[in-house]
Amino acid sequence: MNVVKELSVCGGRLVKLSHNSTSTKTCMNVNVYLPKQYYAQDSSRSRPIPTVVYLSGLTCTPDNASEKAFWQFQADKYGFAMVFPDTSPRGDQVANDPEDSWDFGQGAGFYLNATQDPYAQHYQMYDYVHKELPQTLDAHFNKNAAAELDFLDNVAITGHSMGGYGAICGYLKGYAERRYKSCSAFAPIVNPSNVPWGQKAFKGYLGDERAQWQAYDPCALIKNVKRVGDDKVLIHVGDEDPFLEKHLRPELLLEAAKSTSWENYVQVKKVHGFDHSYYFVSTFVPEHAEFHAKNLGLI
Amino acid sequence: MNVVKELSVCGGRLVKLSHNSTSTKTCMNVNVYLPKQYYAQDSSRSRPIPTVVYLSGLTCTPDNASEKAFWQFQADKYGFAMVFPDTSPRGDQVANDPEDSWDFGQGAGFYLNATQDPYAQHYQMYDYVHKELPQTLDAHFNKNAAAELDFLDNVAITGHSMGGYGAICGYLKGYAERRYKSCSAFAPIVNPSNVPWGQKAFKGYLGDERAQWQAYDPCALIKNVKRVGDDKVLIHVGDEDPFLEKHLRPELLLEAAKSTSWENYVQVKKVHGFDHSYYFVSTFVPEHAEFHAKNLGLI
Protein backbone atom coordinates (compact mmCIF):
# COMPACT_ATOMS: atom_id res chain seq x y z
CA MET A 1 0.00 0.00 0.00
CA ASN A 2 1.57 3.26 -1.12
CA VAL A 3 0.57 6.65 0.21
CA VAL A 4 0.34 8.76 -2.95
CA LYS A 5 -0.73 11.93 -1.18
CA GLU A 6 -1.99 13.00 2.20
CA LEU A 7 -3.53 16.36 3.00
CA SER A 8 -5.58 18.16 5.59
CA VAL A 9 -9.32 18.29 4.95
CA CYS A 10 -11.82 19.58 7.49
CA GLY A 11 -10.58 18.43 10.89
CA GLY A 12 -8.83 15.29 9.64
CA ARG A 13 -6.68 14.00 6.81
CA LEU A 14 -7.46 12.60 3.37
CA VAL A 15 -5.06 9.82 2.44
CA LYS A 16 -4.77 8.86 -1.24
CA LEU A 17 -3.44 5.32 -1.54
CA SER A 18 -2.60 2.88 -4.30
CA HIS A 19 -1.87 -0.84 -4.07
CA ASN A 20 -1.52 -3.91 -6.25
CA SER A 21 -4.71 -5.89 -5.95
CA THR A 22 -4.66 -9.67 -6.09
CA SER A 23 -8.36 -9.64 -7.04
CA THR A 24 -8.12 -7.36 -10.05
CA LYS A 25 -4.43 -7.99 -10.83
CA THR A 26 -4.05 -4.24 -11.33
CA CYS A 27 -2.90 -1.27 -9.34
CA MET A 28 -5.97 0.16 -7.58
CA ASN A 29 -6.45 3.65 -6.16
CA VAL A 30 -8.45 4.31 -3.02
CA ASN A 31 -9.03 7.39 -0.86
CA VAL A 32 -9.45 7.15 2.91
CA TYR A 33 -10.60 10.00 5.11
CA LEU A 34 -9.47 9.81 8.71
CA PRO A 35 -11.66 12.03 10.90
CA LYS A 36 -10.46 14.39 13.56
CA GLN A 37 -11.21 11.78 16.23
CA TYR A 38 -8.46 9.60 14.77
CA TYR A 39 -5.91 12.26 15.70
CA ALA A 40 -7.41 13.17 19.06
CA GLN A 41 -5.54 10.67 21.26
CA ASP A 42 -8.78 9.99 23.04
CA SER A 43 -8.01 7.39 25.66
CA SER A 44 -11.68 7.20 26.55
CA ARG A 45 -12.50 5.75 23.15
CA SER A 46 -13.56 2.22 23.93
CA ARG A 47 -13.92 0.95 20.37
CA PRO A 48 -12.02 1.48 17.12
CA ILE A 49 -13.33 4.11 14.72
CA PRO A 50 -15.91 2.57 12.36
CA THR A 51 -15.86 3.15 8.62
CA VAL A 52 -18.38 4.07 5.96
CA VAL A 53 -17.61 2.74 2.47
CA TYR A 54 -18.86 4.94 -0.38
CA LEU A 55 -19.15 3.28 -3.81
CA SER A 56 -19.18 5.74 -6.69
CA GLY A 57 -21.15 5.73 -9.91
CA LEU A 58 -20.30 5.28 -13.59
CA THR A 59 -17.13 7.05 -14.81
CA CYS A 60 -16.01 8.08 -11.31
CA THR A 61 -12.63 7.69 -9.64
CA PRO A 62 -12.13 7.85 -5.85
CA ASP A 63 -11.74 11.63 -6.20
CA ASN A 64 -15.24 12.56 -7.36
CA ALA A 65 -17.01 11.81 -4.11
CA SER A 66 -14.00 12.91 -2.06
CA GLU A 67 -14.28 16.36 -3.64
CA LYS A 68 -18.00 16.75 -4.13
CA ALA A 69 -20.02 14.69 -1.65
CA PHE A 70 -18.80 16.38 1.53
CA TRP A 71 -18.76 13.35 3.75
CA GLN A 72 -15.76 14.79 5.58
CA PHE A 73 -17.70 17.25 7.72
CA GLN A 74 -20.06 14.46 8.70
CA ALA A 75 -17.23 12.04 9.43
CA ASP A 76 -15.83 14.61 11.86
CA LYS A 77 -19.24 15.23 13.37
CA TYR A 78 -19.90 11.59 14.26
CA GLY A 79 -16.43 10.07 14.29
CA PHE A 80 -16.29 7.59 11.42
CA ALA A 81 -13.68 7.09 8.71
CA MET A 82 -14.59 7.11 4.99
CA VAL A 83 -13.36 4.73 2.29
CA PHE A 84 -13.74 5.75 -1.37
CA PRO A 85 -12.79 2.84 -3.68
CA ASP A 86 -12.40 3.11 -7.44
CA THR A 87 -15.18 1.92 -9.78
CA SER A 88 -13.21 -0.64 -11.81
CA PRO A 89 -9.76 -1.95 -12.61
CA ARG A 90 -7.87 0.41 -14.93
CA GLY A 91 -4.90 0.32 -17.27
CA ASP A 92 -3.89 -0.50 -20.82
CA GLN A 93 -3.96 -4.22 -20.06
CA VAL A 94 -7.56 -4.09 -18.81
CA ALA A 95 -10.22 -5.03 -21.40
CA ASN A 96 -12.55 -2.16 -22.14
CA ASP A 97 -15.89 -1.78 -23.87
CA PRO A 98 -15.35 -2.44 -27.60
CA GLU A 99 -17.63 0.54 -28.21
CA ASP A 100 -15.59 2.63 -25.73
CA SER A 101 -18.75 3.77 -23.98
CA TRP A 102 -18.85 5.17 -20.45
CA ASP A 103 -21.37 2.68 -19.06
CA PHE A 104 -19.30 -0.50 -19.43
CA GLY A 105 -15.65 -1.41 -18.92
CA GLN A 106 -13.21 0.88 -17.20
CA GLY A 107 -15.01 3.20 -14.81
CA ALA A 108 -18.01 0.87 -14.86
CA GLY A 109 -17.08 -2.35 -13.06
CA PHE A 110 -20.48 -2.77 -11.41
CA TYR A 111 -18.89 -4.20 -8.25
CA LEU A 112 -19.25 -7.84 -9.38
CA ASN A 113 -16.94 -10.73 -10.26
CA ALA A 114 -16.98 -11.13 -14.04
CA THR A 115 -17.10 -14.67 -15.42
CA GLN A 116 -16.82 -13.87 -19.12
CA ASP A 117 -13.75 -13.38 -21.25
CA PRO A 118 -12.02 -11.00 -21.65
CA TYR A 119 -13.41 -9.35 -18.51
CA ALA A 120 -13.00 -12.15 -15.98
CA GLN A 121 -9.26 -11.62 -15.74
CA HIS A 122 -9.43 -8.19 -14.09
CA TYR A 123 -13.05 -7.30 -13.34
CA GLN A 124 -13.28 -8.91 -9.89
CA MET A 125 -14.67 -5.88 -8.12
CA TYR A 126 -16.95 -7.78 -5.76
CA ASP A 127 -14.05 -9.62 -4.18
CA TYR A 128 -11.94 -6.50 -4.30
CA VAL A 129 -14.35 -4.10 -2.58
CA HIS A 130 -15.99 -6.41 -0.08
CA LYS A 131 -13.09 -8.73 0.82
CA GLU A 132 -9.61 -7.75 -0.28
CA LEU A 133 -9.75 -3.99 0.23
CA PRO A 134 -10.95 -4.05 3.86
CA GLN A 135 -8.28 -6.62 4.74
CA THR A 136 -5.62 -4.57 2.99
CA LEU A 137 -6.69 -1.37 4.73
CA ASP A 138 -6.77 -3.13 8.07
CA ALA A 139 -3.24 -4.45 7.54
CA HIS A 140 -1.99 -1.01 6.47
CA PHE A 141 -3.57 1.18 9.11
CA ASN A 142 -3.60 -1.13 12.09
CA LYS A 143 -0.21 -2.78 11.73
CA ASN A 144 1.60 -0.98 14.51
CA ALA A 145 -0.95 -0.69 17.24
CA ALA A 146 -4.15 -1.93 18.71
CA ALA A 147 -6.72 -1.61 15.94
CA GLU A 148 -7.75 2.03 15.80
CA LEU A 149 -9.77 1.86 12.61
CA ASP A 150 -12.43 -0.76 12.03
CA PHE A 151 -12.56 -1.82 8.37
CA LEU A 152 -13.85 -5.32 9.08
CA ASP A 153 -16.62 -5.44 11.66
CA ASN A 154 -18.36 -2.18 12.40
CA VAL A 155 -18.75 -0.94 8.86
CA ALA A 156 -21.51 0.79 6.84
CA ILE A 157 -21.88 0.91 3.08
CA THR A 158 -23.45 3.46 0.76
CA GLY A 159 -23.09 4.64 -2.80
CA HIS A 160 -24.46 6.57 -5.75
CA SER A 161 -26.11 5.23 -8.90
CA MET A 162 -24.03 2.17 -9.98
CA GLY A 163 -22.41 2.51 -6.55
CA GLY A 164 -25.80 2.60 -4.85
CA TYR A 165 -26.49 -0.67 -6.60
CA GLY A 166 -23.11 -2.00 -5.45
CA ALA A 167 -23.85 -0.99 -1.86
CA ILE A 168 -27.24 -2.69 -1.68
CA CYS A 169 -25.93 -5.77 -3.50
CA GLY A 170 -22.92 -6.09 -1.17
CA TYR A 171 -25.09 -5.49 1.91
CA LEU A 172 -27.57 -8.20 1.00
CA LYS A 173 -25.00 -10.75 -0.20
CA GLY A 174 -23.01 -10.30 3.01
CA TYR A 175 -26.05 -10.05 5.26
CA ALA A 176 -25.82 -13.53 6.79
CA GLU A 177 -22.38 -12.79 8.21
CA ARG A 178 -23.31 -9.15 8.95
CA ARG A 179 -20.60 -7.89 6.63
CA TYR A 180 -22.12 -4.41 6.86
CA LYS A 181 -24.02 -2.98 9.80
CA SER A 182 -25.82 -0.35 7.77
CA CYS A 183 -26.76 0.36 4.15
CA SER A 184 -28.02 3.36 2.23
CA ALA A 185 -27.98 4.52 -1.37
CA PHE A 186 -28.33 7.65 -3.49
CA ALA A 187 -30.24 7.16 -6.76
CA PRO A 188 -29.29 3.46 -7.01
CA ILE A 189 -29.88 1.04 -9.85
CA VAL A 190 -31.97 -1.47 -7.88
CA ASN A 191 -32.94 -4.04 -10.50
CA PRO A 192 -30.05 -4.30 -12.98
CA SER A 193 -31.51 -7.40 -14.68
CA ASN A 194 -34.38 -5.31 -15.94
CA VAL A 195 -32.87 -1.96 -16.93
CA PRO A 196 -30.54 -1.08 -19.84
CA TRP A 197 -27.43 -0.10 -17.83
CA GLY A 198 -27.64 -3.27 -15.77
CA GLN A 199 -28.46 -5.57 -18.67
CA LYS A 200 -25.49 -4.33 -20.68
CA ALA A 201 -23.17 -4.85 -17.69
CA PHE A 202 -24.56 -8.23 -16.65
CA LYS A 203 -24.50 -9.56 -20.22
CA GLY A 204 -20.93 -8.42 -20.72
CA TYR A 205 -19.53 -9.48 -17.36
CA LEU A 206 -21.76 -12.48 -16.50
CA GLY A 207 -22.91 -13.76 -19.89
CA ASP A 208 -26.29 -14.33 -21.49
CA GLU A 209 -27.78 -16.68 -18.90
CA ARG A 210 -30.15 -14.57 -16.85
CA ALA A 211 -30.10 -17.15 -14.06
CA GLN A 212 -26.51 -16.07 -13.34
CA TRP A 213 -27.64 -12.49 -12.96
CA GLN A 214 -29.82 -13.21 -9.94
CA ALA A 215 -26.79 -13.60 -7.67
CA TYR A 216 -26.07 -9.88 -8.14
CA ASP A 217 -29.56 -8.40 -8.46
CA PRO A 218 -30.89 -6.70 -5.30
CA CYS A 219 -34.49 -7.39 -6.33
CA ALA A 220 -33.71 -11.12 -6.40
CA LEU A 221 -31.38 -11.13 -3.38
CA ILE A 222 -33.82 -9.36 -1.08
CA LYS A 223 -36.31 -12.22 -1.36
CA ASN A 224 -33.81 -14.70 0.06
CA VAL A 225 -32.30 -12.67 2.88
CA LYS A 226 -33.98 -12.71 6.28
CA ARG A 227 -33.92 -9.30 7.90
CA VAL A 228 -33.19 -9.03 11.65
CA GLY A 229 -33.59 -6.40 14.35
CA ASP A 230 -34.36 -2.87 13.19
CA ASP A 231 -32.29 -3.08 10.03
CA LYS A 232 -33.51 -1.01 7.16
CA VAL A 233 -32.21 0.41 3.91
CA LEU A 234 -32.37 4.17 3.29
CA ILE A 235 -32.63 5.41 -0.31
CA HIS A 236 -32.94 8.92 -1.73
CA VAL A 237 -33.69 9.75 -5.34
CA GLY A 238 -34.49 13.05 -7.06
CA ASP A 239 -37.70 13.42 -9.02
CA GLU A 240 -35.82 15.31 -11.75
CA ASP A 241 -33.18 12.59 -12.09
CA PRO A 242 -32.94 11.98 -15.84
CA PHE A 243 -32.17 8.28 -15.26
CA LEU A 244 -35.03 7.66 -12.85
CA GLU A 245 -37.54 5.97 -15.17
CA LYS A 246 -35.15 4.12 -17.43
CA HIS A 247 -32.27 2.92 -15.25
CA LEU A 248 -32.99 3.41 -11.54
CA ARG A 249 -36.65 2.50 -10.93
CA PRO A 250 -36.44 2.34 -7.11
CA GLU A 251 -40.10 1.28 -6.90
CA LEU A 252 -39.03 -2.15 -8.18
CA LEU A 253 -37.09 -2.76 -4.96
CA LEU A 254 -40.16 -1.83 -2.91
CA GLU A 255 -42.20 -4.29 -4.96
CA ALA A 256 -39.59 -7.01 -4.56
CA ALA A 257 -39.57 -6.43 -0.80
CA LYS A 258 -43.32 -6.91 -0.50
CA SER A 259 -44.33 -9.93 1.57
CA THR A 260 -40.72 -10.40 2.67
CA SER A 261 -39.10 -9.48 5.96
CA TRP A 262 -37.96 -6.25 4.27
CA GLU A 263 -41.44 -4.94 3.57
CA ASN A 264 -41.63 -1.48 5.17
CA TYR A 265 -37.90 -1.66 5.89
CA VAL A 266 -36.76 -0.28 2.56
CA GLN A 267 -37.33 3.45 2.64
CA VAL A 268 -37.32 5.32 -0.68
CA LYS A 269 -37.46 9.09 -0.31
CA LYS A 270 -38.22 10.85 -3.58
CA VAL A 271 -37.07 14.45 -3.24
CA HIS A 272 -38.38 17.31 -5.31
CA GLY A 273 -36.32 19.19 -7.87
CA PHE A 274 -33.12 17.17 -7.44
CA ASP A 275 -31.26 15.57 -10.33
CA HIS A 276 -28.58 12.84 -10.49
CA SER A 277 -25.60 15.07 -9.69
CA TYR A 278 -23.43 15.49 -6.64
CA TYR A 279 -25.56 18.51 -5.78
CA PHE A 280 -28.20 15.92 -4.95
CA VAL A 281 -25.82 13.54 -3.18
CA SER A 282 -24.15 16.20 -1.04
CA THR A 283 -27.49 17.64 0.04
CA PHE A 284 -28.58 14.34 1.58
CA VAL A 285 -25.21 13.14 2.87
CA PRO A 286 -25.97 14.63 6.32
CA GLU A 287 -29.15 12.53 6.61
CA HIS A 288 -27.34 9.38 5.49
CA ALA A 289 -24.45 10.12 7.84
CA GLU A 290 -26.82 10.33 10.80
CA PHE A 291 -28.51 7.08 9.70
CA HIS A 292 -25.18 5.25 9.55
CA ALA A 293 -23.88 6.84 12.75
CA LYS A 294 -26.87 5.42 14.60
CA ASN A 295 -26.40 1.97 13.11
CA LEU A 296 -22.69 2.02 13.90
CA GLY A 297 -23.39 2.85 17.53
CA LEU A 298 -21.92 6.34 17.37
CA ILE A 299 -25.08 8.12 18.55
CA MET B 1 -30.61 36.78 -19.09
CA ASN B 2 -31.37 33.17 -19.94
CA VAL B 3 -31.96 30.47 -17.36
CA VAL B 4 -29.90 27.56 -18.68
CA LYS B 5 -30.72 25.22 -15.84
CA GLU B 6 -32.25 25.36 -12.40
CA LEU B 7 -32.10 22.61 -9.81
CA SER B 8 -32.61 21.91 -6.14
CA VAL B 9 -29.50 22.06 -3.98
CA CYS B 10 -29.60 21.89 -0.18
CA GLY B 11 -32.67 23.84 0.89
CA GLY B 12 -32.69 26.22 -2.06
CA ARG B 13 -32.14 26.35 -5.81
CA LEU B 14 -29.06 26.76 -7.98
CA VAL B 15 -29.81 28.84 -11.09
CA LYS B 16 -27.38 28.62 -14.00
CA LEU B 17 -27.70 31.70 -16.17
CA SER B 18 -26.13 33.08 -19.32
CA HIS B 19 -26.34 36.58 -20.76
CA ASN B 20 -24.75 38.81 -23.37
CA SER B 21 -22.40 41.15 -21.58
CA THR B 22 -21.90 44.69 -22.83
CA SER B 23 -18.60 44.83 -20.92
CA THR B 24 -16.98 41.75 -22.42
CA LYS B 25 -19.02 41.66 -25.64
CA THR B 26 -19.40 37.92 -25.13
CA CYS B 27 -21.97 35.55 -23.71
CA MET B 28 -21.14 35.10 -20.01
CA ASN B 29 -22.19 32.29 -17.70
CA VAL B 30 -22.97 32.84 -14.05
CA ASN B 31 -24.41 30.64 -11.29
CA VAL B 32 -26.64 32.02 -8.56
CA TYR B 33 -27.67 30.11 -5.44
CA LEU B 34 -30.92 31.22 -3.87
CA PRO B 35 -31.10 30.04 -0.26
CA LYS B 36 -34.09 28.45 1.39
CA GLN B 37 -35.03 31.81 2.91
CA TYR B 38 -35.77 33.10 -0.59
CA TYR B 39 -38.56 30.56 -0.91
CA ALA B 40 -39.87 30.87 2.61
CA GLN B 41 -42.37 33.69 2.09
CA ASP B 42 -41.19 35.25 5.29
CA SER B 43 -43.22 38.39 5.76
CA SER B 44 -41.15 39.29 8.81
CA ARG B 45 -38.06 39.76 6.65
CA SER B 46 -37.41 43.45 6.82
CA ARG B 47 -34.57 43.63 4.30
CA PRO B 48 -33.81 41.95 1.00
CA ILE B 49 -31.55 38.89 1.07
CA PRO B 50 -27.89 39.97 0.80
CA THR B 51 -25.44 38.29 -1.55
CA VAL B 52 -21.91 36.95 -1.33
CA VAL B 53 -19.92 37.08 -4.58
CA TYR B 54 -17.34 34.29 -4.97
CA LEU B 55 -14.60 34.88 -7.55
CA SER B 56 -12.91 31.69 -8.74
CA GLY B 57 -9.29 30.98 -9.54
CA LEU B 58 -7.34 30.21 -12.70
CA THR B 59 -9.02 27.80 -15.16
CA CYS B 60 -12.33 27.73 -13.28
CA THR B 61 -15.85 28.17 -14.60
CA PRO B 62 -18.81 29.09 -12.37
CA ASP B 63 -19.33 25.36 -11.76
CA ASN B 64 -16.12 24.55 -9.86
CA ALA B 65 -16.97 26.45 -6.70
CA SER B 66 -20.67 25.65 -7.05
CA GLU B 67 -19.81 21.96 -6.90
CA LYS B 68 -16.83 21.89 -4.57
CA ALA B 69 -16.79 24.84 -2.17
CA PHE B 70 -20.02 24.01 -0.45
CA TRP B 71 -21.27 27.51 0.20
CA GLN B 72 -24.86 26.34 -0.18
CA PHE B 73 -25.27 24.91 3.33
CA GLN B 74 -23.85 28.12 4.75
CA ALA B 75 -26.09 30.27 2.57
CA ASP B 76 -29.08 28.39 3.99
CA LYS B 77 -27.73 28.69 7.52
CA TYR B 78 -27.41 32.47 7.47
CA GLY B 79 -29.75 33.50 4.68
CA PHE B 80 -27.59 34.96 1.93
CA ALA B 81 -27.54 34.32 -1.81
CA MET B 82 -24.36 33.32 -3.67
CA VAL B 83 -23.11 34.62 -7.01
CA PHE B 84 -20.46 32.60 -8.89
CA PRO B 85 -19.21 34.57 -11.95
CA ASP B 86 -16.96 33.14 -14.66
CA THR B 87 -13.23 33.89 -14.66
CA SER B 88 -12.94 35.49 -18.12
CA PRO B 89 -14.71 36.07 -21.41
CA ARG B 90 -14.76 32.92 -23.54
CA GLY B 91 -15.29 31.95 -27.17
CA ASP B 92 -13.49 31.54 -30.47
CA GLN B 93 -13.51 35.31 -31.01
CA VAL B 94 -11.79 35.99 -27.67
CA ALA B 95 -8.02 36.42 -27.86
CA ASN B 96 -6.15 33.81 -25.90
CA ASP B 97 -2.61 33.33 -24.64
CA PRO B 98 -0.37 32.79 -27.70
CA GLU B 99 1.31 30.07 -25.66
CA ASP B 100 -2.08 28.57 -24.81
CA SER B 101 -1.15 28.36 -21.13
CA TRP B 102 -3.68 28.11 -18.30
CA ASP B 103 -2.50 31.19 -16.39
CA PHE B 104 -3.35 33.85 -18.97
CA GLY B 105 -6.21 34.41 -21.41
CA GLN B 106 -9.43 32.44 -21.28
CA GLY B 107 -10.06 31.18 -17.74
CA ALA B 108 -7.58 33.75 -16.43
CA GLY B 109 -9.08 37.21 -16.82
CA PHE B 110 -7.71 38.51 -13.51
CA TYR B 111 -10.84 40.61 -12.92
CA LEU B 112 -9.38 43.76 -14.49
CA ASN B 113 -10.08 45.97 -17.52
CA ALA B 114 -7.43 45.23 -20.15
CA THR B 115 -5.96 48.17 -22.02
CA GLN B 116 -3.71 46.29 -24.44
CA ASP B 117 -4.55 44.81 -27.82
CA PRO B 118 -5.81 42.24 -28.56
CA TYR B 119 -7.15 41.77 -25.02
CA ALA B 120 -8.83 45.13 -24.45
CA GLN B 121 -11.76 44.23 -26.69
CA HIS B 122 -13.18 41.50 -24.46
CA TYR B 123 -11.19 41.33 -21.21
CA GLN B 124 -13.18 43.90 -19.24
CA MET B 125 -13.76 41.73 -16.22
CA TYR B 126 -13.51 44.51 -13.64
CA ASP B 127 -16.45 46.36 -15.12
CA TYR B 128 -18.27 43.11 -15.72
CA VAL B 129 -17.99 41.65 -12.22
CA HIS B 130 -18.25 44.77 -10.11
CA LYS B 131 -20.65 46.89 -12.17
CA GLU B 132 -22.54 45.21 -15.00
CA LEU B 133 -23.25 41.81 -13.45
CA PRO B 134 -24.86 43.10 -10.22
CA GLN B 135 -27.05 45.48 -12.23
CA THR B 136 -28.03 42.68 -14.61
CA LEU B 137 -28.85 40.29 -11.77
CA ASP B 138 -30.85 42.97 -10.00
CA ALA B 139 -32.86 43.63 -13.15
CA HIS B 140 -33.46 39.92 -13.71
CA PHE B 141 -34.38 38.80 -10.22
CA ASN B 142 -36.12 41.89 -8.90
CA LYS B 143 -38.09 42.94 -11.95
CA ASN B 144 -41.53 41.85 -10.79
CA ALA B 145 -41.58 42.70 -7.13
CA ALA B 146 -40.15 44.70 -4.35
CA ALA B 147 -36.46 43.87 -4.32
CA GLU B 148 -36.05 40.50 -2.63
CA LEU B 149 -32.39 39.95 -3.44
CA ASP B 150 -29.76 42.58 -2.81
CA PHE B 151 -27.03 42.53 -5.46
CA LEU B 152 -26.17 46.20 -5.14
CA ASP B 153 -25.92 47.44 -1.57
CA ASN B 154 -25.57 44.77 1.10
CA VAL B 155 -23.01 42.59 -0.65
CA ALA B 156 -19.88 40.70 0.41
CA ILE B 157 -17.05 39.49 -1.80
CA THR B 158 -14.64 36.60 -1.52
CA GLY B 159 -12.62 34.37 -3.80
CA HIS B 160 -9.86 31.83 -4.25
CA SER B 161 -6.34 32.37 -5.62
CA MET B 162 -6.73 34.68 -8.66
CA GLY B 163 -10.28 35.18 -7.39
CA GLY B 164 -9.02 36.01 -3.92
CA TYR B 165 -6.92 38.68 -5.58
CA GLY B 166 -10.00 39.87 -7.51
CA ALA B 167 -12.02 40.08 -4.32
CA ILE B 168 -9.48 42.15 -2.38
CA CYS B 169 -8.84 44.37 -5.42
CA GLY B 170 -12.54 45.00 -5.99
CA TYR B 171 -13.16 45.60 -2.30
CA LEU B 172 -10.41 48.21 -2.00
CA LYS B 173 -11.15 49.95 -5.33
CA GLY B 174 -14.82 50.23 -4.42
CA TYR B 175 -14.20 51.05 -0.76
CA ALA B 176 -14.97 54.77 -0.92
CA GLU B 177 -18.53 54.07 -2.14
CA ARG B 178 -18.81 50.95 0.09
CA ARG B 179 -19.35 48.75 -2.93
CA TYR B 180 -18.83 45.70 -0.70
CA LYS B 181 -19.63 45.45 2.98
CA SER B 182 -17.24 42.57 3.64
CA CYS B 183 -14.19 40.94 2.09
CA SER B 184 -12.35 37.68 2.56
CA ALA B 185 -10.07 35.50 0.46
CA PHE B 186 -8.74 31.96 0.22
CA ALA B 187 -5.07 31.68 -0.79
CA PRO B 188 -5.13 34.99 -2.71
CA ILE B 189 -2.47 36.52 -4.92
CA VAL B 190 -2.00 39.74 -2.92
CA ASN B 191 0.79 41.51 -4.77
CA PRO B 192 0.44 40.69 -8.48
CA SER B 193 3.03 43.28 -9.53
CA ASN B 194 5.72 41.28 -7.77
CA VAL B 195 4.89 37.62 -8.49
CA PRO B 196 5.08 35.65 -11.76
CA TRP B 197 1.34 34.93 -12.25
CA GLY B 198 0.49 38.57 -11.68
CA GLN B 199 3.34 39.98 -13.72
CA LYS B 200 2.42 37.87 -16.72
CA ALA B 201 -1.21 38.96 -16.47
CA PHE B 202 -0.52 42.64 -15.83
CA LYS B 203 2.03 42.83 -18.63
CA GLY B 204 -0.35 41.17 -21.09
CA TYR B 205 -3.52 42.98 -20.11
CA LEU B 206 -2.14 46.35 -18.91
CA GLY B 207 1.18 46.73 -20.76
CA ASP B 208 4.77 47.18 -19.69
CA GLU B 209 4.36 50.36 -17.63
CA ARG B 210 4.42 49.26 -14.03
CA ALA B 211 2.78 52.51 -12.97
CA GLN B 212 -0.41 51.29 -14.64
CA TRP B 213 -0.32 48.13 -12.53
CA GLN B 214 -0.73 49.98 -9.26
CA ALA B 215 -4.40 50.64 -9.93
CA TYR B 216 -5.05 46.91 -9.62
CA ASP B 217 -2.52 45.84 -7.02
CA PRO B 218 -3.91 45.33 -3.49
CA CYS B 219 -0.53 46.12 -1.94
CA ALA B 220 -0.60 49.53 -3.63
CA LEU B 221 -4.33 50.16 -3.20
CA ILE B 222 -4.37 49.46 0.53
CA LYS B 223 -2.02 52.39 1.17
CA ASN B 224 -4.50 54.85 -0.32
CA VAL B 225 -7.76 53.59 1.15
CA LYS B 226 -8.85 54.83 4.56
CA ARG B 227 -10.43 52.08 6.62
CA VAL B 228 -13.57 52.86 8.68
CA GLY B 229 -15.43 51.21 11.55
CA ASP B 230 -14.51 47.63 12.34
CA ASP B 231 -13.80 46.63 8.77
CA LYS B 232 -11.22 43.96 8.30
CA VAL B 233 -10.11 41.49 5.66
CA LEU B 234 -10.03 37.75 6.48
CA ILE B 235 -7.54 35.55 4.62
CA HIS B 236 -6.76 31.83 4.92
CA VAL B 237 -3.87 30.07 3.26
CA GLY B 238 -2.53 26.53 3.63
CA ASP B 239 1.09 26.00 4.65
CA GLU B 240 1.35 23.18 2.08
CA ASP B 241 0.02 25.33 -0.74
CA PRO B 242 2.48 24.76 -3.59
CA PHE B 243 1.98 28.34 -4.82
CA LEU B 244 2.48 29.99 -1.44
CA GLU B 245 6.06 31.22 -1.77
CA LYS B 246 6.12 32.02 -5.46
CA HIS B 247 2.70 33.44 -6.33
CA LEU B 248 0.62 34.16 -3.21
CA ARG B 249 2.96 35.66 -0.58
CA PRO B 250 0.23 36.92 1.78
CA GLU B 251 2.84 38.43 4.10
CA LEU B 252 3.36 41.17 1.50
CA LEU B 253 -0.15 42.47 2.13
CA LEU B 254 0.54 42.57 5.86
CA GLU B 255 3.71 44.54 5.16
CA ALA B 256 1.88 46.93 2.85
CA ALA B 257 -0.77 47.48 5.50
CA LYS B 258 1.79 48.48 8.11
CA SER B 259 1.49 52.07 9.29
CA THR B 260 -1.81 52.41 7.43
CA SER B 261 -5.36 52.31 8.79
CA TRP B 262 -5.41 48.62 7.84
CA GLU B 263 -2.58 47.59 10.16
CA ASN B 264 -3.95 44.82 12.39
CA TYR B 265 -7.12 44.73 10.26
CA VAL B 266 -5.83 42.30 7.66
CA GLN B 267 -5.93 38.85 9.21
CA VAL B 268 -3.89 36.09 7.54
CA LYS B 269 -4.52 32.65 9.00
CA LYS B 270 -1.94 30.11 7.87
CA VAL B 271 -3.43 26.65 8.36
CA HIS B 272 -1.42 23.48 8.72
CA GLY B 273 -1.40 20.71 6.16
CA PHE B 274 -3.74 22.34 3.68
CA ASP B 275 -2.92 22.78 -0.01
CA HIS B 276 -4.40 24.98 -2.75
CA SER B 277 -7.38 22.74 -3.59
CA TYR B 278 -11.08 22.99 -2.91
CA TYR B 279 -10.49 20.64 0.02
CA PHE B 280 -8.85 23.67 1.60
CA VAL B 281 -11.49 26.15 0.45
CA SER B 282 -14.47 24.06 1.54
CA THR B 283 -12.97 23.43 4.97
CA PHE B 284 -12.84 27.15 5.76
CA VAL B 285 -16.00 28.26 3.97
CA PRO B 286 -17.99 27.98 7.24
CA GLU B 287 -15.64 30.44 8.96
CA HIS B 288 -15.80 32.86 6.04
CA ALA B 289 -19.57 32.50 5.86
CA GLU B 290 -19.91 33.48 9.51
CA PHE B 291 -17.55 36.43 8.97
CA HIS B 292 -19.63 37.72 6.06
CA ALA B 293 -22.95 37.01 7.78
CA LYS B 294 -21.88 39.28 10.64
CA ASN B 295 -20.77 42.03 8.29
CA LEU B 296 -23.99 41.77 6.29
CA GLY B 297 -26.07 42.16 9.45
CA LEU B 298 -27.44 38.61 9.37
CA ILE B 299 -26.20 37.67 12.84
From TrEMBL, chains A, B:
Highest taxon, organism lineage: Eukaryota
Keywords: Cytoplasm, Hydrolase, Serine esterase
Main location: cytoplasm
Compartment(s) of residence: Cytoplasm
Enzyme Commission number(s): 3.1.2.12
Catalysed transformations (reactions): S-formylglutathione + H2O = formate + glutathione + H(+)
Pfam families: Esterase
Annotated function: Serine hydrolase involved in the detoxification of formaldehyde.
Family designation: Belongs to the esterase D family.
PANTHER family hit by this protein: S-FORMYLGLUTATHIONE HYDROLASE (PTHR10061:SF0)
Protein name: S-formylglutathione hydrolase
